[in-house]
Amino acid sequence: MVVMPFHWSPSPPPAPQRLTLWAHQSLSPKGFVGFVGVTAAMLALPLITQIGHPGLWVLLPCLLAALGGLWAALARNARDRTVSEDLVLTAGDVTLTRHGPRGQQQDWQANLHWLRLTLHATGGPVPQYLTLSGGGRVVELGAFLTEAERITLKADIEQRVAELR
């Protein structure tokens, strides 16, 4: 069974339909520590041959800088993956709230009757680019999902919108 990085809250129509989407989290905090620990151990191997030799003091800062850079890059990547989107469908309107990786929030709202979902096979920043349009604006949905997930998501949303209309 494939786990999709989105979830519909369990409420039958005509109750509001709430969809939560999130970015993939492939590296857990435990995996983060394990990866950095194994990398530190591998970087320490050349240092063992230099114990008691002045070359140790040349290698040590370089290897510590490499390990610190790896830690910083993985930590930054983990912060950037905290993006999520909440889509709420009601009988009258649709609301999309995007929670960015650095705490920023963007909101969009439109009338459900005028909502249009479009899956752009090409021409978008990612293949199978999914957009919502209505209320005079076009917004992206789930750009952090895979192509197959966006195709499945479009079908799910269309089904829920049809049930609400």
Helix coverage percent of residues?
Answer: 25-40%
Order of helices and strands: EEHHEEEEEEH
Q: What structural class do helix, strand and pairing data support?
A: alpha+beta
Distance between the termini: 31 Å
Radius of gyration over C-alpha positions, nearest whole angstrom: 23 Å
- Count of DSSP helices? 3
Rounded mean pLDDT score: 87
Main sheet: which strands, in order across? 1-2-3-4-5
Number of domains: 2
Tell me the number of strands.
Answer: 8
Determine the CATH superfamily of the largest domain: Pleckstrin-homology domain (PH domain)/Phosphotyrosine-binding domain (PTB)
CATH topology of the largest domain: PH-domain like
- The percentage of residues in β strands lies in 25-35%
Any guess at the CATH architecture of the largest domain? Roll
Q: Main beta sheet, described?
A: 5 strands, antiparallel
What CATH first level of the largest domain would be assigned? Mainly Beta
- Show unreliable segments: none
Cα shape = elongated
Keywords, separated by commas or semicolons:
alpha+beta, 2 domains, 8 strands, PH-domain like, elongated, 165 residues
Describe this entry's structure for a reader.
The longest helix has 25 residues, at 56-80. The chain folds into 2 domains: 6-24 and 83-164, Pleckstrin-homology domain (PH domain)/Phosphotyrosine-binding domain (PTB) (PH-domain like, Roll); 29-80. A hairpin with a 2-residue loop joins β7 (129-134) and β8. 38% of the residues lie in helices and 27% in strands. With 165 residues, the protein is of the alpha+beta class. α1 packs antiparallel against α2. The chain has 3 helices and 8 strands. 10% of the residues are buried. The strands form 2 sheets. Strands 1-2-3-4-5 form a 5-stranded antiparallel β-sheet, covered by helices on one side. Strands 6-7-8 form a 3-stranded antiparallel β-sheet, with helices on one face.
